[in-house]
Amino acid sequence: MLVVDDDTTVADVVRRYLERGGHRVVLVENGEDALRSAAADPPDLVVLDLMLPGIDGLEVCRRLRRDSAVPVIMLTALGEEENRIAGLQLGADDYVTKPFSPRELALRVDGVLRRSRAAAATPAARTVDDGDLLLDAGARKASLRGVELPLTTREFDLLEFFLTHPGQAFTRDQLLERVWGWTFGDQSTVTVHVRRLREKVEATPARPTRITTVWGVGYRYDPARQ
């Protein structure tokens, strides 16, 4: 596991809590070292502070996502909502706001890893298709008109959930619980991921026909093929 934070006190506390949970932890203090470490020894998960010297956390996340689907949990300061949303748009899986409880972070890490490993162990039997959109649950791949979609782990989970629950409206809280496994959390996480998913599966993301908004409720997946 890779922890990236230039605050050595915070990084050391995080390391100790994660090591107590049985994780092997590598600490780095800047974005350049984070990218080098991830390339040389791919981690199971990255805990990434957004405010880093040199290459900032957003750019690190963007470069990681270009080459890998490794789960990323962001560390953001209170009041950095724009950066937090930007990180989610780049494909981060979760975030924790500073100051935070190390125990909460450890629980978030365990939750993200559990979902990631469960997804990797999904049997290869199930495929779901909706016209020109095809999802292979076993291979963890989805394609549109024959072209593979560059989906993050969470985007894939959300698309799979929508495809297997067509025509049903879900609130953001319900999606947080059913897809993220959270019983509490920031609903903007769902909003950002729906927006990113629309950009990949909709012909005109600003006027979606598949992932539609149900005003006052949340979202519904409307199959293209009836």
UniProtKB/TrEMBL annotation:
Domain OmpR/PhoB-type: 125-223
Keyword Thylakoid: no
PROSITE patterns given in the database record: OMPR_PHOB, RESPONSE_REGULATORY
Protein's name according to its UniProt entry: DNA-binding response regulator
Pfam families: Response_reg, Trans_reg_C
GO biological process, one term: regulation of DNA-templated transcription
GO molecular function: phosphorelay response regulator activity; transcription cis-regulatory region binding
InterPro entries: CheY-like_superfamily (IPR011006), OmpR/PhoB-type_DNA-bd (IPR001867), Sig_transdc_resp-reg_receiver (IPR001789), WalR-like (IPR039420), WH-like_DNA-bd_sf (IPR036388)
Every Response regulatory domain range: 1-113
Superkingdom as given in the UniProt entry: Bacteria
GO cellular component term, pick one: cytosol
Record field: transmembrane: none
DNA-binding region coordinates: 125-223
Keywords: DNA-binding, Phosphoprotein, Transcription, Transcription regulation, Two-component regulatory system
Modified positions (4-aspartylphosphate) in chain numbering: 49
